[in-house]
Each structure stands twice: as structure tokens, then as C-alpha cells.
Amino acid sequence: MDKVRFLLDGKPETVAGIDPTTTVLQWLRANGLTGTKEGCAEGDCGACTVALGEPAPEGGIAYRAVNACILFLPVLDGKQLVTVEHLRAPDGTLHPVQQAMVDCHGSQCGFCTPGFVMSLFALYHATDAVPPDDDIHDAIAGNLCRCTGYRPIVAAARQALEGARGDRFQAEVGATREALRSLRSRTSLALDAQGKRYYAPQSIAELSSLLAQHPDAHLLAGGTDVGLWVTKQHRDLACTIYLGAIAELDTVEETDTALEIGAGASYTRLLPIFQRLWPSFGEMLRRLGSVQIRNSGTMGGNVANGSPIGDSMPALIALGTRVVLNKAGKRRTLPLEDFYLAYRKTALERGEFVERLWVPIDRARRFATYKLSKRFDQDISAVCLGMAVKLERDKVAEARIAFGGMAATPKRARAAEAALEGHPWTEASVLRAAERLREDFQPLSDMRASAAYRTLGAQNLLRRFYLESAGEPVRLGVEAHA
To answer: What is the DSSP letter of 18?
Structure first.
């Protein structure tokens, strides 16, 4: 199939001959739907928020808020796109979320308002229950406002969510599901336009075949990083292969001993599982990005990206994660720490891709992950720690310590681990291990932190892990001892 087909509100839309790296935001504004705004063009401000609708497994339509500024138009294939222009009823009646924003004076200059409205629209459809304030705050944390402050916007959210539910989208759910069903194709999307190619295979076997033909193609999952290559770096992506249409990659399987994560599983899907298994890791995923970013981004993409400051890798390494790679159907498995070779260089061969992650579940381990960043939420780490220890008779039988932001790759602290293993689990042992971090890392200074800050921060995070795991109060700002 060489055309992108989707529902714009409830009406079928077909797009052909367009540059496949055109963003949804660019296409909307070029076609007169200018309610969706560009603020940052990198998925930070939320002014471009739209809602994507897809059939929910239990029935109905699941709407998720996403950033249109870093979403390539072909990703819409087979989905419903809803923008702020589509919310009011045919007679002009405002949607309950829109009316609440008017009633509570939640808009001033109005630039950010459409994004807030769409984030709250998605929350409106996410649950029939009235969510607690924390969920409301989380839903709009990816939307920035510089005029009103957030109190009236939160008040508008409460009014809309506490009132009687019901909008035309709920009334039209049957017709929408049928229209989306009619868009499904057994033929995978393949675009060749304006000198660029875009493929959306529907199986792992098809992906393997495409990578054999196009070994230098760029793999696109959530686009939370790749999208910026286009909007910020103005890179031309000659060939892109989208992974989001492969159901085999969007899997999560949990047993008593392991969690297997398909490379296409989103952060939103993983968040409640990690909150239950490893609460600090769940909190890390929440802090990693806004709802819009978590709805699009994938842990497999974060791992494959190879950034030394990716938030998930230190924790995954500390847990003993193994990565499953696939090349033309032949699979190999590596410890995650061995996957990273140098700055932005991984062990992936040409034509090979990350298929899944295997994360052991060992309830005998003490585990936590922390990050230091200039902003508490939705900011890139200066330092990120993942740490797990197993004790036997109050001595450390095993220690796994991994850091991001301290080297050119996510990396284990082998000297610090050796300083702990075989020794009593005491603060004195941890302080000795903290000092050994100087042997493991020689961090650099950059815009996020100085080398001295990174070293001291890393040492204090080790001490924090000990104090919390031992049930002792944590005193912030205490320097690690020499």
C-alpha cells in the first residue's frame, strides 16, 4: 500500500506523494487546521498535543495524547486523529473540557490552550472514575503555560471530570470502530516519495527482510528522538522503517522469574508493571517524560538509541537485563552492559535490530534507581544510578552498580562493586565503595553538570541507596567520605 489512510475526526483521509518525514503538525497547519500550535518542535511544551484513537481490546476507542510536532504523518495509518477543531458538537456546543476551560478562566493568551484541551480530552476518555489530583497533574505535566498558571486549568479539569460524562465520541464509538476496521490492510505500508522511502512492516519476518535489503535504514519506534533529527537537526532520512505496526514487538510477558519486553512496548504500557515490580523504576519512568512522550516512546528504543544519558539503561543493567538481537531471523543474546561499545556505538551489526529485553525478577535483591537533573520531571539526567545488591548473612554476596551520565556509555562501576562484595552491608562499606567510583569514572563537565558535581552526586546516590535500603533517614547534601 502506497497511501497513508486514517480518520480525521470521523472522516476517512488519504494522503499520497508526501515526504514521509513530514510531521503531523506540519500537515495539519498546511491544511488549515491551525488550532494545533508549534511551540518547541521537540515534544517538550505540549502546544501541539493531539489525540490518536485506536480500537481498545476491551471495546470502545482508546485515545492517547501525543506530540504532533515529532510524529511523522505515516504513523497515522489506520488510526483516528482528533484535533481541537473536532471537539465541539455539530451544533457548536463546546466539549465539556472546552466549556470547563471557559468557565474556570483556564485560558489567557490562548496559545497553549488547544494542547491542554487535548490532554484533558484524552484523560476524559481514559477512565469513568474521577481521577485524583495527582493524575490530573500528571496528565497536563507535558503542557506548558506562561500566562494563567495552572490552578484554573486544574480547576477546569476537575469540573469536566466530575460532571456527567458523555460526548459525541462516545456516541459514535461503533461507527468509529467500523471505520477503523475498514482502514486495516493486510498489505504493509510502503511509501516512496520525494526521494525518501518509508516502510511499516507488520511482522518480525518482514522487518528482517526489509533490513536485509536496506541495512542502513533508520528504525523508527516512538520517534521521541528520531523526530528531533528532522525538526531540530534538519536531517534527511532517506529510508525509514517504522516498528509500530508489528504486533509481535508490542508484547510484555511476565513470569515468576522474568519480564520479557518487546522492543515496541510503550512506556505507558510498562509503567504500571514497573511500579508494581520495582517502585523506584516506575517513578523513574514517570519522570522520564510527559504522558505524551510516554504514550509514544518505547523502552526498546531507549536501549537501542545508545545514549549515555538514557534513563532506563542504568536500572536495567543493575537488574541484570539481557538484550535479544535479531538479524535475518538469527537471534543472539547479550548482557545489556556489553551492548554498549563507545559513545553512541552499540554491538548491533548492519541489518540487526533489538527484538526484546529479558529482565530477571529476583525478589531477594535490594534495588533502586535514582536520577539527578536540573528539573525534577521531564529532564535529561546529569547522573543516573541503578543499583542492586543481594545479601547473605548481612554480607554483600552480589552488587550490580550502573551509572548513566558518567561515561561515554551506560556503564557498570566494577571497582565499586568489588569494594562491596564479600563485605558487611554497612555505611562504612558503602562509603569505601563510593570512593572507588573515582577509579570507575572520569566524568566530563558540560551544560548539565560539572565533573566534580557528577562525582559527588554519584557518591551520594550510593549512600542514599544504603540509607534507604537500611531504613535509615536520608540527609540530603551530605558529602561522601574519602
So the answer is: S
Contact 377, 311 (CB under 8 A): no
CATH 3.10.25.10 fits 96-166, yes or no: no
DSSP assignment letter at 210: H
Q: Evaluate whether 295 touches 66 at the Cβ level (below 8 Å).
A: yes
> Angle formed by the axes of helices 96-103 and 151-162, to 10°?
140
Strand pairing report for 189-193 and 11-15: unpaired
* Beta carbons of 136 and 157 less than 8 angstroms apart: yes
Cell numbers for 146? 506562561
pLDDT in tens, 142-171: 999 988 789 999 999 999 999 888 899 999
Do the strands 189-193 and 196-200 form a parallel or antiparallel pair, or are they unpaired? antiparallel
Please, what's the b/e burial string for 223-262 (b: 16 or more CB within 10 A of its CB; e: otherwise)?
bbbbbbbbbeeeeebebbbbbbbbeebbeeeeeeebbebb
Q: 330: which 3 cell numbers?
A: 538469527
- CATH superfamily entry for domain 4-85+173-242: Beta-grasp domain (3.10.20.30)
| Per-position b or e across 31-67, b if 16+ CB within 10 A of its CB | eebebbbebbbebbbbbbbbbbbebeeeebbbbbbbb
Cα–Cα distance measured from residue 370 to residue 401, given in angstroms and rounded to the nearest whole number: 12
- CA nearest neighbour of 211 among 226, 201, 223: 201
CB atoms within 10 A of CB 366: 16
> What fold does the segment set 366-469 form as a domain?
Enolase-like; domain 1 (3.30.390)
Domain coordinates in residue numbering, the chain = 4-85+173-242, 96-166, 366-469
**69 touches 40 (CB < 8 A):** yes
Please name the residue that has the C-alpha cell 540530603. Answer: 476
Query: Could you list the pLDDT tens digit for every one of the 482 residues in the chain?
Result: 799 999 999 999 999 999 999 999 999 999 999 999 999 999 999 999 999 999 998 889 999 999 999 999 999 999 999 999 999 999 999 999 999 999 999 999 999 999 999 999 999 999 889 999 999 999 999 999 988 789 999 999 999 999 888 899 999 999 999 999 999 888 999 999 999 999 999 999 999 999 999 999 999 999 999 999 999 999 999 999 999 999 999 999 999 999 999 999 999 999 999 999 999 999 999 999 999 999 999 999 999 998 999 999 999 999 999 999 999 999 999 999 999 999 999 999 999 999 999 999 999 999 999 999 998 888 899 999 999 999 999 999 999 999 999 999 999 999 999 999 999 999 999 999 999 999 999 999 999 999 999 999 999 999 999 999 887 655 544 333 32
- The CA radius of gyration of the chain, in Å to the nearest whole number, is 23
